[in-house]
Amino acid sequence: MEHKLSEHSLPHEPLPRSPSIESSISQTKSLHIIDDEITRVKDDQELNEKVENLLKKKIQEGDKNALFQLAQFYFEQELYDHALVYFQRASDNGDYQAKYQLGIMYYDGLGGKEHHKKGFDNMFQVATATSNHVRHIIPCAQYNIGRAYFEGYGVKQSNDEAEKWWLLAADDGNPKASIKAQTALGMYYSREETLDLKKAFFWHSEATGNGSLESQGVLGVMYTTGQGCRQNSDSAFECLKEASLRGNIYAMGNLVTYYYGKKLYTKAAELALKVTQIEKIEDISKTTDCLPAFIAKGIALGYFYYARCLDLGQGVKQDNQLAKKYYSKAFEYDGATAQRLQNMVTHGKV
Length: 350
Hints:
Helix content: 55-70%
Strand content: under 5%
Number of helices: 18
Number of strands: 0
């Protein structure tokens, strides 16, 4: 299946954000825009120094919360070696948020070499915590534990354990649970090894209802093809259109497919051309929280269908030579998707 989950494709669940340390100290903001970049940088440096010095003073006065706050300040400044030291000190005092961040840092090698076992051990302590004041981060930690089991990082690979922890993190679709876990379960049940399309549809529906942009695009495809649900062209269009407007490139590529299948060639060509102009997949992934592999699939769809429009003169002026270049780019972005479409062309299905 095109929207299945593969090993080493999942992002971690970051610590739920609270207001930054800077915003809690800086009480007022200028009402005008400062155009002078040098002045802005100087102001930022002065604020950062003020924050750092204040938190260090609080630590000296015995404020245990300040240990985590300073560590988080360094983390947000990407001073990871400093952050690691203070997260460890806070963790030694029983701070579960610090343990969570240590798990992320060890897992991803921030502030030093990757140490997946240490990352797993710290995250596991959070995932199994019973304290009420950290319950808001427990589902996030449970998702990350599931990710570790699925990828086999820091622990022996186990699909069963991954599924168990993701189900805990997803909490029957609770909007306050881990939405990433809900999406991950949707993709997990789309894999050949763990195929259950009704479950996949259920979890993508839950995640979409809770705001998952990734799942909304997949849900549109499932409605289009009738995978795990009744085929519903109207629901497919609504999901794909809304997800596209929200920036889901995979949905945009599949919306091109939808338009082309309805013989709305001008719309298909216009949107396909827009998709072909998309670059910087990693940046888009960070902005939209969509997996790079699915962004690449969406771009490949755009290139292929624009090539097809050029090849046949559908919605655009016919240009066979230019079409060849676009076909080639489709294969560069995602060979499997492009080959699937090429096979459909060969059999007269596109």
